[in-house]
Amino acid sequence: MNRKEQLNKISSTSQFDLCIIGGGASGAGIALDASLRGLKVLLIDKFDFAGQTTSKSTKLIHGGVRYLEQAVKKLDWEQYKMVQKSLHERDTLLRNAPHLTRPLPLLTPCYNWFEGIYLTIGLKLYEWIAGSHSIGASKWLSRKEALTYIPELKQKNLSSAVLYYDGQLDDARYCLAILQKAETLGATILNYAEAVQFEKDTSGKLTALQIKDTLSGNTFAVQSKVFINATGPFADHVRQMANPNLKSRMKVSRGAHVVLPPNLMKNETAILVPKTDDGRVLFIIPWQDHLLVGTTDEEDKLSETPDLEAYEIPYLLSYVNRYLEKEVRPEEITSGFAGQRPLLGKAEKGSDTKSLVRDHEVEIDTASQLVSIMGGKWTTYRLMAKDTLDQIYENIWQTTPVDCTSEKQLLHGAEGYRFEDWQKLSEQYQVSSATAQHLMKKYGAFAQKVLALTDAQPALKELIQPNHPFIKAEIVYVIQEEMAMTSHDVLYRRLGLALRDAQAAKASEEMVENFLKTYHFE
């Protein structure tokens, strides 16, 4: 994808079928689904793709163990249905982008026999609901067996453990892969494009959108048959821009994470803390050669720049130290981040955001005909897209929906992908096995295209920073092929170095800025 080409496509298109505001998971999913249905699509984002909630998740593809517990305890059918469809979608996300996902074993330590029985029954039910979409059998482990999976577990009072499986994803790159696939199917995709003001006809229906290119400062208008608001936590802003009479619908829940060095847990099994002292679920997860710990869940004030707060660090580390033998200190944290979840609920201010169902709703404003997709979660992004488009066909265009085919659509980098090809790449281009494997997991079948840049410039094989497998060719590739426009785009979302090691990313900023000046052709 090239940003100048995308701008040219916009200027040469008189009217789009859909204009999607928001380049996170839900907006990307709609762009792909709509492109597969043959629609003319434009997607814009005020900042970078996956710049907000989408890239700040706990990196899990899951049905929601906690939601299942709530469904059983409260006989809540809505919670149960959400778990059911999430487990079905978990399988789809794993299958459609195998380079960016993997099944993840999770272990829950038990400290008495009742805990073991309770969790075993619950996770067997979780597995049963998944049915044919199960990705691994759960089992009750003895104390000795538990320690073979995670030798670093604190052994005092440990009686047993329960093992089950969910999925893990590289969230920012997964979103990008959806957008890249949509673009190859004809969609126009533009980052750093802010929705400024709607234009309406005499009946109040939206007809056009004024857009500001925040990099150049230029403004332009696009016409579209339908406008879709897929801005997650910021949905109310766009809704009220289209119709000031609409009441706010969104609540924001804050989720903070810390990242720790890889030597704290050497195996690839994660820890599920099934219930913290304040009733949350927390994960300690091997993630891209590091250890990801999260997440918090509390009401927050909407922000475009949520950051990890100092008070959250001791809270998160307290559970690491409760479950691991070796004590972890704050100075060992290599990075951290916080995001905001878009929750749709009628709860009063100050109510418990943990209790809100993470499901979605498609709203069509009768006055403006703005379509807003609100709520939801990463795992069900594809269903959110399908429901949005089906509602547009049925309620705006008043016709039978064209079939949705996104369930079996391999994403960018998945076609022809074989992880074991890293060995050929390592030999052919004389890069380390760590770098070759890293490239396969980031770019899939396009890993060789990254390394091909080193044919003319062997210096691009050099590591960006010691102790990390990233190479300089990746910087060039993401600038030329993935519309990375700033050093933040490169280091946080395209490469992900900043989320692993904040100091290494900071030390790389000047280098990345120089690459941006050299390789941008706008």
UniProtKB/TrEMBL annotation:
Alpha-glycerophosphate oxidase C-terminal domain location is 404-516
- For the keyword Flavoprotein, the answer is yes
Q: Which organism is it from?
A: Arcicella rigui
Domain (FAD dependent oxidoreductase): give its ranges. 17-343
- The stretch of residues making up the signal peptide is none
Q: What is this protein called?
A: Glycerol-3-phosphate dehydrogenase
Gene3D superfamilies to which the protein is assigned, alphabetical = Alpha-glycerophosphate oxidase, cap domain (1.10.8.870), D-Amino Acid Oxidase, subunit A, domain 2 (3.30.9.10), FAD/NAD(P)-binding domain (3.50.50.60)
Give the cofactors, semicolon-separated. Answer: FAD
Keywords noted in UniProt: FAD, Flavoprotein, Oxidoreductase
Write out the transmembrane intervals.
none
Q: So what EC number does this one have? A: 1.1.5.3
Superkingdom to which the source organism belongs: Bacteria
Entry keyword annotation includes Nucleotide-binding: no
The chemistry this enzyme catalyses reads: a quinone + sn-glycerol 3-phosphate = dihydroxyacetone phosphate + a quinol
Family of this protein: Belongs to the FAD-dependent glycerol-3-phosphate dehydrogenase family.
